[in-house]
Recover the amino acids of this structure.
């Protein structure tokens, strides 16, 4: 069995590195695999339409746009997060807010996550969609 003096060189090396444990890098934290990260803001132009990054909040009393941030559009959903009910309600609600057909709003990513990407299959600019979402969030 080793005595306490055997660990002193290792402890000294850890202290010289500023307290970092051996073998760990000090680089920036990596994004988890499969995370939804928008290219530039929550609403971006895409091939064949516009992508909207949504932070879903299922189980609310009524569906509403809660906030529009640089990362995502917060949407409270009046449906439980089970068996795709919240996803269907999200698409229905966004079609109503954006004044497009339900068939033109599809869930592209995030079927089982709160972070979702919804694609709007109409020829409108991202600025027009963002303006409608901000208007809905302020009411």
């Amino acid at each position: 069995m080793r005595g306490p003096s055997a660990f002193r060189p290792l402890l000294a090396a850890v202290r010289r590195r500023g307290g970092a444990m051996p073998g760990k890098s000090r680089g920036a934290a990596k994004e988890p695999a499969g995370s939804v990260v928008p290219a530039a803001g929550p609403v971006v132009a895409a091939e064949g339409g516009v992508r909207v990054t949504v932070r879903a909040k299922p189980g609310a009393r009524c569906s509403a746009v809660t906030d529009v941030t640089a990362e995502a559009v917060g949407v409270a959903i009046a449906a439980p997060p089970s068996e795709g009910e919240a996803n269907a309600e999200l698409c229905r609600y966004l079609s109503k807010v954006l004044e497009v057909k339900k068939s033109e709003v599809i869930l592209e990513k995030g079927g089982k996550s709160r972070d979702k990407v919804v694609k709007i299959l109409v020829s409108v600019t991202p600025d027009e969609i963002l303006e409608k979402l901000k208007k809905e969030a302020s009411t």
Remarks:
- The longest strand covers residues 49-58.
- The CA atoms of residues 59 and 80 lie 5 Å apart.
- Confidence is low (pLDDT under 50) at residues 28-38.
